[in-house]
Amino acid sequence: MNIKQAYAQCEAVTAHHSKTFYRAFSLLPYDDRQAIWAIYAFCRRVDDIVDEGERPDEQLQQFEKQWEAFVAGHTEDDFMWIALRDVFSRYDMDVEPFWHMIEGQKMDLTVHRYDTFAQLLRYCYCVASTVGLMLLPILAPHRRQQLKESAIALGEAMQLTNILRDVGEDMMRGRVYLPREWMNMYGVSEQQIAFGQVTNSFIDLWEHIAQEAENRYADAEKTFSLYPLSARFAVKGAALMYKSILHVVREQQYDVFTKRAFVSEERKKALLQQMGGENVEVG
Fold it and tell me: Which residues are the signal sequence here (predicted)?
């Protein structure tokens, strides 16, 4: 398989699994967006092992060995690894967030409840903030240190948004990501969640976590101007579209049990038009 074919498959994976992510980053210069698709394919591969794998423990262990071999210089004949090798040859990549991503996926195999919000944030860092850190060498290679904390904040915000959107779906998988300390504080039980009860106490708990997410979106937004113009548009667009999921849940009366909140194509276009005052150069 040649490198062009490898990247084409990575792009197809991205377009299929995350229309929001794909739309946000599709305006990057050609080489940069190809690299983004490869990184997304890596993250998707490891995430799918945990969520859909027949033997996730064994498969994740095998994936970790493949990653160790990759770091050591070996590249398997697989489109994702081929594309990722090219990314590592063209950009000054940091292996640490990739390791942390695998750590976060391991957590999903063994940890199905979180006692504190601090514990939940560690999980959010591993499975989401790491993505932002993986992308920084591509999006803003000369300002990585300046943007590190805001990239972490944006990842936490996005993962908290995922958690708030997927409460019912996660419960069906035997997972409750809402921190127990706050569930207890608001008087929300797992039984209520299992029965899909949208009570005032559940709404208050949901909004508490949503506020934490929105605070982090606001923190991240403070540094968007430090990104190069095309990357700034992509990051800001991704943040706006993800943040809008929270508004959709509110419009659906907090029903995260029988409805899946998604941002319509019409709303996505409106959000991008809202940003349209910036002159973005596209490769």
Answer: none
